[in-house]
Write a structure and sequence with these properties.
mainly alpha, Cytochrome Bc1 Complex, Chain D, domain 2, two-stranded antiparallel sheet, 4 helices, globular
């Protein structure tokens, strides 16, 4: 069989294999079926707009650094480990985070911002390690 025929025959298979390899590493959004429409929408918006820089397993997002030496300037807080309330999330969205980091101001606005805040306030911090108070 000629080289050209091999490329024609196996080219599409190589593309399918590459797509399959990429898709296997991607997590999806995992929320209870009875979750509110606003929180589900917030999870979807978070996955689309925030997952490049933040981690939150419920949104299928793995954007934060796992090891301190792997941290990049764009890496935001890991929301599996950090709990947030709605007011803080809305403040961070409107102001580009809490410091002079790379988060753009108003990355989401209006009802999308409120939905992300509702989602984060409900699901952030659920995988945080337990804290031990002195004297326990």
């Amino acid at each position: 069989m000629s080289t050209r025929r091999l490329r024609i025959a196996f080219g599409p298979l190589a593309v399918l294999a590459a797509v399959g390899a990429v898709a296997c590493g991607e997590q999806g959004i995992s929320l209870p079926a009875d979750e509110s429409a606003q929180v589900k929408h917030g999870a979807s918006v978070f996955h689309q707009r925030c997952s490049g820089c933040h981690t939150l397993s419920f949104a299928g997002a793995e954007g934060s650094a796992i090891k301190p030496n792997d941290k990049e300037y764009k890496d935001g807080p890991n929301f599996d480990q950090r709990k947030e309330d709605e007011a803080s999330v809305l403040f961070a969205i409107a102001n580009g985070g809490f410091s002079s980091g790379p988060m753009p101001q108003d990355i989401v606005v209006g009802n999308d911002a409120k939905a992300v805040a509702a989602f984060l306030s409900k699901y952030s911090g659920r995988k945080a390690p337990p804290t031990i108070s002195p004297g326990q």
